[in-house]
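Following up on my earlier thread - several people asked me to post the actual chain instead of describing it. Fair enough. Here it is, all 440 residues.
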Amino acid sequence: MQNSDNRTTCCVVGGGPAGMMTGYLLARAGVDVTVLEKHGDFFRDFRGDTVHPSTLEVFHELGLLEDLLKLPHQRVSVAGGFLGDFGFTAADFRHLPVRCPFVALMPQWDFLNFLASRARRFPSFQLEMEHEVSDLILDNGRVAGVAVKTPAGTKDIWADLVIGCDGRHSTVRRSAGFEVLDTGVPIDVLWFRISRKSGDAEQLLGRLNYGKALILINRGEYFQGGLIIRKGTFEQIKGVGLASFRESIARIAPFLQDRVEELQDWDQVKLLTVQINHLPRWYRPGLLCIGDAAHAMSPAGGVGINYAIQDAIAAARILGRPLRKGQSTADLLSRVQRRRELPVRLMQILQKQAHVGFARIFDNPGSLTPPWQFKVVIRIPGLQRLMGRVVGMGILPEHVRRSPQRRKAIGVACGVGAALAVLLYRCSARSRNTKLASLA
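Reply from S.P.:
Thanks for posting it. Predicted structure:
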């Protein structure tokens, strides 16, 4: 039996970037929305902290950018690293046609707290912490709400629409019985903290050498480090010992030699099991999944937060007015998937190709000498700007308001991204076929 105190127009499950942005935008549109977050706060270390130019542009359109940038953050205008001893720039964001042509490195808990504080200014917004969804409520086959565990006990929350934003281990999508298609990923990442000195250079894409790849993200007083490893080898690495792990880091990045002793316990090292997957169908009557709940992205390019937010913008734009007017959204849920599926799948193709490249590093445990072809390609005029657009803006970026010039830029970004993804996919397929032919 429904209780009016436990009823809302839209129930958003998960208080991550997709959930908080969805809640904010729907409340802004006058929709009664309740966001459920299972934890008591947003403080989770080793989350993605890259806020891309596309997302910063959206905050500018919302009138929130100036306040957002008052939060502690670092700015990355170009992203690159070292292949062996060869330094290179992979992406240049400085020429993007946006208010902020840079990536902001901002702790995700600050980002989410900021969104929550702004959303609470709308009377139709409600955020419930320590509310963990355990199941869906069905009414004649239609999703009609969620069953929730709270510190005060269990309760049911009824809603005209449930939006699942509860990540790659989504309870919502599992309860809905959605099929999940996984793309094989050959790598995992070991995240850790290590102190940073003022003279240290930006190393957003990190260093590749000696059969390993190390990502270093500037977080002000420390680096968020990520050592890329073969999938499923963490226990083997732990068995060799922490001293060997520290030695590997110092060997790849000698300037960290005097700091690796800060890693004293394996509890300081967190395993991120890298996944790329997607739902063939993101919705069923009364339910929509977006963000990682619909398509888990890898850390490659740091685009996960930004694609989740793009999903939220599209969902709010398509569903906001009908929800506010109490109209059925049954025929609109498919529009959200159609709008967002192409850019997501193309970016996942790009990420898969990046993983193939990373995995090849494991085959050469010695000192890495960059092939001449890489040195030639990386110097192609305009390549860094192109990659800056694909990574920084994404494919088919969403906006809360548009201009003719912006629509033109969107088309260019989408076309370039699609062409690049298809090219990489075909090159990869050709390479695999050549290898198979040689084996035969």
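The CA atoms of residues 48 and 393 lie 17 Å apart. That should answer part of your original question.
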